[in-house]
Amino acid sequence: MGKRKKVAALNRKEALKTLYFAKLQDVPTSPRKMRLVADMVRGMEVNKALGALKFSSKEASARVEKLLRSAIANWEQKNERKAESGELFISKIYVDSATMLKRMRPAPQGRGFRIRKRSNHVTLFVDSINNNSDKN
Known about the structure:
By secondary structure, the chain is of the alpha+beta class.
């Protein structure tokens, strides 16, 4: 690795130390279904989002709830204090497409139809409200 790339990589690594996030990789649901849940909680305060996810009937909401709890724990670990109610909110959440398993389904007259079993990656960022107002 050249010096310029190494410096850029170190700068990115330092910038990540000030962010509080959690990642969920290779979730075996389609990104479209996961984005419905992500859109539901985007920008919400974390306690409100946990309640919304707990009582949602979607299967993906249980996975996002677990991911949100992990992001909160990461925030608490880096700040060395407990999160108070109303302090944290979901600043960013995005769902990216992951690998696709390609399978064949038997079809009439000797043909085969292609089945794509999709998966996704979810990244969730949390931030404190008072920290966000300092930046503006």
